[in-house]
Amino acid sequence: MGSGDDTHVKEEAVAPSDSSSAQAGKVTTHRAMARSLARRSRVKVDTVYESHIAPIFQGKALAPSKDGRHVPIQACHDQPLIDERRGHSYISNSIRSARYTPWDFFPRQLWFQFTRLSNFYFLCVGVPQTIPGLSTTGNYTTILPLTFFVLLTMFKEGWDDWRRHKMDKVENRATATVLKSRGSLGRGHDAGGKPWSRLWRSRPDSKNTEVSRPSEEVDAELSWTHVQWDKILVGDIVMLKRDDAVPADLVLLHASGEEGVAYIETMALDGETNLKAKQALPATQKQCGTIAGLRECKGYVAVEDPNRTLYSFDGRMMVDDYTRPLTLSEVLLRGSTLRNTTKAIGLVVNTGEETKIRMNANHHPKAKKPRLERYANQVILTLIAYVVILAIGCSGGYLLWHRQIEQRSWYIENAPVGFEEIIIGYLIMFNNLIPLSLYVSLEIVKLCQQWLITNDVDMYDEVSNEPMRCNTNTILENLGQVGFILSDKTGTLTENVMKFRKLSVAGTVWRHGDEERPGATPSSRRTSHEPRKSSAVKPSIEVTEVPFDASRDLLRPRPARRSSSRPRASAARTREQSTIDLISHVKAHPDTSFSRKARDYLLGLALCHTCLPELKDDGSIDYQASSPDELALVRVAHELGFSVVARSTHSITLLTTDRNGDQDKSTYEILDVIEFSSKRKRMSIVLRCPDGKVWLLCKGADSVLIPRLKQAELAVRTSHDVRRSTEISRQLHRRSVQLERRGGVEGRASMAIERIRRSMDAPRSRSQPRARSLAPPARSVDGLQVPSFNRRQSQEQTPTLDDAQTFARCFQHLDDFATEGLRTLLFTQKVIPAAEYTSWKKLYQDATTSLVDRQERIEEVAEMLEQDMVLLGASAIEDKLQEGVPETIEKLRRANIKIWMLTGDKRETAINIAHSARICKPESHMFIFDALKGDLPTQLRNAAETVALDSITHSVAVIDGYTLSVVDASSDLQKQFYSLIFALSSVICCRASPAQKASIALSIPQHLPNTLTLAIGDGANDVAMLQSAHVGVGISGKEGLQAARVADYSIAQFRFLQQLLLVHGRWNYIRTARFVLATFWKEMLFYTPQAMYQRSNGYTGTSLYESWSLTALNTLFTSLCVIMPGIVEQDLSAKTLLAVPELYAYGQRNSGLNLRRYLVWMIGALAQGVIIFIVPWSIYAKGSEMSDNNLFALGDLCFTIAIVWTNVKLLLLETHTKSLPIAISFTITFAGWWAWNCFLSAAYSANLSPYDIKGGFFHGFGKDLVWWLVFIGTISILVVMEFALKTIKSALRGNKWWQKWGGGMWEGDVALWQEIEQKGGVQGDEDDDEDQAYEERFAAENK
């Protein structure tokens, strides 16, 4: 059936009766062929470069070593170690993020510059022009300006790259503490590398960077020494202090932590926020803590060859004739930072560009080109064809004239000119139709655009004192054409600050945090991101009614969330009280069931962690944790009166306060700690309580703990019921959203025009409520009612719930927390009989000491203990977003920009943040692709069928790094995957390595060639992605400034993307596109009379215009009219562009510069150029007695009309923003032209040439009234024509044919919004604030 239908469709598509379809098909075929030809040409050029030119600069790949890299464990080396793969010493530890070196800059830049179509064209024209006798316009008028422009562009690129070298130097000259012999302190340090590089490094450094470090341990020959990073060698022994950055890839030999544990922060490496524990092997931990021990240590390390894999490491260590395996747990990678550890000592095994973080970097990024250049190249190709046709036509005209007139004229019959010479002469004469000044002026425009962006106060962050920085101005217009944003998570979307927000215990929800206090105003919530003046936290609670009978409440469709993402609290369903009341209730009634459950839960917060307390100088207690989540949990326990005051490997000391205010200190013995892992998704601790009982506390993901509860069957069934009810509610919500959107087209800027017009025509008082009704919130009258707590509540009034009700409410709370984007954890507990624990402990000891499959055995034994547990409650932690992230993402989504989140964090965390940031909406349909679940093609196929069959308004794909590597390994999977995800709204990629982030940035343009990508990140692990995307935006955040230095642009906060893209991006795109169009338009306008005049001079190449005026044309008289609008033009205000993000589609659709728009402008230039020549020729030259009958009078008249009309059209008629710079530019140009005429009339001497200029303007044609009347009349004709065309366009704005073929609907939308601005502008977000305030007042009145 399917094949028959397809055949029928094909037959209809090619039916001869449908001529229009056939014609359209031919046009489409021709376009496809042209694109295919261009693509094949680019591929051939790239292939030649990659195969013949790139290897000269990049070197060849190294063969793998036989048995890995062998590094001896030795206190000091007299000579650098030799790399067997190279045959000389290992490479230095210096890194280079710059694109060029002094050796390859010039040849690579020459190749890059002359692969640009315009430069190649001018080179082809300029070289023949230097041959004497061929050019009628001089021999060096093209090649010299081209050389100057190319050198200027190369200088600018070199300047940008030199700044990158300076940034690299900052990192390379950072210092680390290395063990060195005392005799080497005054000598230069050979950093290894290629043999010739030692010539440069043999000179001593002017700065004494190797200074002996004072130490409590003194050795006669060795000393801990400050060494620059770039001088660290493979085999060096490095000592790290707390908060030191790791300078190279190290194998951990010794750590000051208990049992040799060192805590490492890898946020800049893989984006993960939690600290990782690294542990030195016992053999080196005991011996390598001192210089004397390092002297005596004999052994070596054999590790794998350098590679980019971040999540695995293979090696072995031989010490004292014993071989021990090395894994990632014993390795410190460059890019990480030592935390919570006093001292660590490591052996350098990889340096510089061979470290894992640099292996993941983009070592040879290509210079980025503006997307408009592609369309400008298409324009140039058409102009080249036009110049060739014009030259051939004029040359053919000369042959006809030669036959008909020249051969019959006795005075020139023996002076013919060859066809080759005449056609080359015409090619050189008309080559200025493609002006070289375009690129010089464009550089001026972009420099001014760069200055305007960097000085925008709306992108200045007062907190960090960071302005917007622009590292390159080459691709400014790309900011207005972005289709995909690839965003990092940690430090980019979030502040990496965890805040405890809610807890669920005994079926009740308690809200924690001063920002959510009752009666908080919208303004107070907006400023909640600001730091508190006091460190004290005033918690509050929320008790929520959730009936167990979900049929009447959970199945009710929920209202859609507003784009502002501000929380809306229903007064009828929410009652908030301070947590002081909760603690007071627990203290006042300690024997109630509720109080016991609450106390156990708070004990679980205070005890189930690995945090270490620290006593500050002021006597307060703070905590150090391996995870910010754990830190938030232990801090909230401290705030609620359960303070951890001491902790060792064997005990935890807890300080609590009783009802009388007396403090009680109790000690819990730590029996076992079963660590969290990505596979287990939970962490457990076994304690011996002060009363002697053995107590298991466990926290983790609800998906793994619910099946392990005591009443697991009931818990699982209840969880499924709650999830099913919630999913039904979300489906109903999705359907309601779909029905709302069927009445219009989503993404159209014109959809809001009528609303704006109505708001302007009938302004509404601020006290007047909105016309739409706000139904009072539904009140739940059935089910269990949970009363609020207060100090006077009696013990008998405390609610008591059975297990089923507690499960239902707790699981509903978990779902609500996740919907709000909070990170959730479930807490459970279990009292273990002494006999059971003793038998289990033996199995656990065997597992922890096993040499084979240790981790697997530990997990199996832990599984035995973590069963039949009792539910304590749940927690909700907010990974605090940066200010304005949800609003920014919503506006970018409305601008038709798809947002992908690429992070190294785990899946659950990424999904939670996606909900908080509104990358995922409540009604989103989520597809999770996991290769470990098997049959990945089927997963992709099912998702594609779901997207095709269901009308899904918003869909999100979630994929991890391993699954992405499986996709990349198969071309079929790649095609299937990318064809699917481009149809989705967003993508979340978790556990992604830096190389995978860069690969995604490169893959999107390969599958969608017309799409432009923007990458944004703040860490060193984002550098490769920033360099691979079309536009790289760095955030100057907490992970350092490396991303901000390497990126094309740097901002301080994610929310500034609104201003950068929607405002400056669109403005720069429109300015640059109009600049290019105007430049080509004026050249066509000026050279059309020149071409028409050739018929009157026998096609001899005589110029209609005076040569000096023609030379100064693009410099003095038509430069400001294209440069100034390119700098200051604003077709719409910033307020309108931010309020209506849909207008951003103008640049995405390339409506400013495309072939259709270019042809319209060129046809207009041809028509106007014909009028500029025909009217003066017919009226002034032939229709009247000329007072000045030399050629200059006619040529100057045509030239004057063209100059005045060019400035009138471009500065007064086409420019929307009539600002002071525009007025000044027009005045200067207009007055300057008449001053130029006066100068020429006085400067020239009298001669008998056709250009008798001397005194012409003063005594000749300047006194001729006809000359002036023709000038004024021709300008008037052109102005009337222009206004008539604008009137016709305005009348046809709503016509469907015109929207498709006559200018595009987005141009019409812009005109409508301009009219709206003239009538009063756009109200923007003020209406949303008014709606917010009104709804809050309504809720308060109906409490």
Mean pLDDT: 77
- Largest sheet report: 9 strands, mixed
Number of strands: 37
Which structural class do you get from the secondary structure elements?
alpha+beta
Low-confidence stretches: 1-28, 52-58, 187-215, 515-576, 742-798, 1330-1343
The order of strands across the largest sheet is 16-37-36-35-17-31-34-33-32
Roughly what fraction of the amino acids lie in strands? 15-25%
Rg (CA only) = 38 Å
CA-CA gap between termini:
61 Å
Number of H- or I-type helical stretches: 45
Helix percent reads 40-55%
How would the global form be characterised?
elongated
GO biological process, one term: endocytic recycling
Keywords: ATP-binding, Magnesium, Membrane, Metal-binding, Nucleotide-binding, Translocase, Transmembrane, Transmembrane helix
Family: Belongs to the cation transport ATPase (P-type) (TC 3.A.3) family. Type IV subfamily.
Subcellular location: Endomembrane system; Membrane
Descriptive overview:
The chain has 1343 residues and is α+β, with helices and mostly antiparallel strands. The protein is elongated. Helix 11 packs across helix 12 (419-429) and helix 13 (437-454) runs parallel beside helix 35 (1120-1128). It is built from 45 helices and 37 strands.
